[in-house]
Write the structure tokens for this entry.
Amino acid sequence: MSARHETRANPLLGLPTAASFRGMPLQSSSARLTDCLLGGKDNYLVDSKLAESLEKITGGLVLQTAREQRRFTVDTLMFLARRGIRQFVDIGCGLPSSTAPVGLLPSAMNVAVVYVDRDPVPVAHAGALLMRRTHGPSGYALVDFVENDVLQHPHVASVLDFSRPIGVLMHDVLHEVSDADAHRAVSSLTAQLPPGSALSITHPTASEAHDLMHRMAGQCAQAGLPSVTFRDPNDLSQFLDGLDLLGPGVEDTAHWHNERAGSRDHPCVSYSAIGLKPLHGMAV
């Protein structure tokens, strides 16, 4: 992969950091809630209270799900890197940390990643983290994937090599978007990806735990998080129309990479799927 190091203005200049919000009354955010559930330190009282409330509602399922989502992201990066994909765009990246999933990959893989979020705080954190990276070109962009062309954003395009496959992660982001906007955004992204590229999606579902998931969504809405659109496996597969489904297809997130998974000890609350863009129209 050709590294495309270009001189450009720092997109973080003028962006708020988590520290700049200290002491301010805040609603919760998806990024900070996830950080709290994973034991991070970049969250606030409103986030920890929401996490505690969700734990009481679910009996710990919300914590287990957050960890499973994290594990799926790490496993997916390794899975795709082994297939030869070494550049990624993480849309809705949340709050990266020194143990961000891409940082857990062997440095010899020389993986490049672009963190994208519409929340300025995660982008500021991503920039601070990525400026300390020593392998692989990396980038970060403050951009709403629904309203903007993510892949053509200058801070994304300057990192990517469009002559080689790209992996796009849309993990736990589409549930905050309407059907029409979600399909339009995903279709635009996949149309621009080079052959051999991959799209990975995780998405919450209420198919097996309707009442529980809707109670959780209600608690999150009260804390200021966006409304949730739950989708089932058929809905998720439609986002990947035209792509070749890898692995088990649309599967429980906890079991997608786990070939030895046995019976589940909790209802499925998240589905995942990875689609590969065919090479010149031929199935791979």
About this structure: Residues 61-82 form the longest helix (22 residues). Strands lie at 87-91, 112-117, 139-142, 167-171, 198-204, 244-245, 251-252, 270-276. The chain has a mean pLDDT of 83.
